[in-house]
Amino acid sequence: MKNSKLNDLVRNFLLSEGQTSTPSIKSRFLALEEMLSRINGRSLAEIRRLEIIGEQLRGLKREVKKLEEVKDILEEENSELREKLTLLEESKEE
Fold this sequence. Notes:
Elements: H1 2-16, H2 25-38, H3 44-93
Helix pairs in contact: 2-3
C-alpha cells in the first residue's frame, strides 16, 4: 500500500512537472471586467454593446460558478471511491 501511494505521488509530480501555471478563471474574469470598465463608449451604440458584453460576462461567471460546484462534488465522490477501492484492494491482499 505504501509503495502504491509513493508511485502515485511520483507519477503526479512527473505529469505536472514543466507545466506552467495559467491564470484562474476568476482572475481572467476580473481582468476582463477591468478592461471593460476602462473602455469609454463614444456613441449610444457603443455604450449598449459594452452593456451587453458586461451582461454576457456576468452570465458566464454564473455558469462557471455552477461548473465549479459540480466539479467539487465530483472530486469529493472520486476521492471517496478511491478510498473504497484502496480498502477493497487491501482486504483482497489479506
